[in-house]
Amino acid sequence: AQKITQTQPGMFVQEKEAVTLDCTYDTSDQSYGLFWYKQPSSGEMIFLIYQGSYDEQNATEGRYSLNFQKARKSANLVISASQLGDSAMYFCAMCILTGGGNKLTFGTGTQLKVEL
Amino acid sequence: NAGVTQTPKFQVLKTGQSMTLQCAQDMNHEYMSWYRQDPGMGLRLIHYSVGAGITDQGEVPNGYNVSRSTTEDFPLRLLSAAPSQTSVYFCASGWAMDTIYFGEGSWLTVV
Questions:
Q1: For residues A26 and A95, is the Cβ–Cβ distance under 8 A?
Q2: CB-count exposure of residue A56 (10 Å: 0-12, 13-18, 19+)
Q3: Percent with pLDDT over 90 in chain B
């Protein structure tokens, strides 16, 4: 079974500062993918970044980067130069590809608040 | 949320009623799935599919039924709604492991 742990229920960051959201995972599968999604108060799930288990380089997408440490089973999201619009819930998720399709397991999320 | 359309966006049901949440995607994705999100929790997988005619159960399948007759559509049926099914429902579609897109969500209240 797969498990995602996000230990920070809430985080505060000053505008223009960088922030790291923690995510650890557990799986016995060798092939998996790690995602981060943003969920603003309007409720939609917005894809931010993806890291494959065999990718040697850390993924980056604009101001988002994923700090992937395979041996530690961690996949932390780093947001650089925080903006007020970054205030939202952030979910870490792991995907396993099975014969029946792709299955995502989510963490419980981190509520990020960006302050002036 | 490129190309994944969910309807309705909001619905109120009485206990015991049935209904279908619709999900359609226009990206020719093989994989489609349904999740539910309850307060204070992440999304949990209800049912998923790898293509037309092929479905499987996820973590919380009880009380829900799915079928996939076309690549584009993956409806979720509530057979006899219960208050415990009050939740936000998300449909997702994708190719392999690295492309998974979500619809905008359907807010369901069962009274």
A1: no
A2: exposed
A3: 80
Q: Which residues pair with B82 in a beta bridge?
A: none
Residue at B104: amino acid letter: E
Terminal-to-terminal C-alpha distance of chain B = 30
B22, containing H or E segment = strand B19-25
According to the model, what pLDDT value does residue A51 have? 95
Of B1, B48, B88, the CB nearest to A103: B48
Contact at 8 Å (CB) between A34 and A75?
Answer: yes
DSSP 3-state of B90: strand
List Cα–Cα distances, A106 to A18, A23, B20, in angstroms. 24, 10, 25
User: b/e map of A71-86 (b: 16 or more CB within 10 Å)?
Assistant: eebbbbbbbeebeeeb
Tens-digit pLDDT profile for residues B71-86? 999 999 999 999 999 9
A46/B54 Cβ within 8 A: no
Neighbours of B107 (CB within 10 A): 15
- Taking an 8 Å cut-off on Cβ atoms, the answer to whether B100 and A91 are in contact is no
Is the pLDDT reported for residue B68 higher than 80? Answer: yes
Strand partners, B54: B51
Q: Under DSSP, is residue B11 helix (H, G, I), strand (E, B) or coil?
A: strand
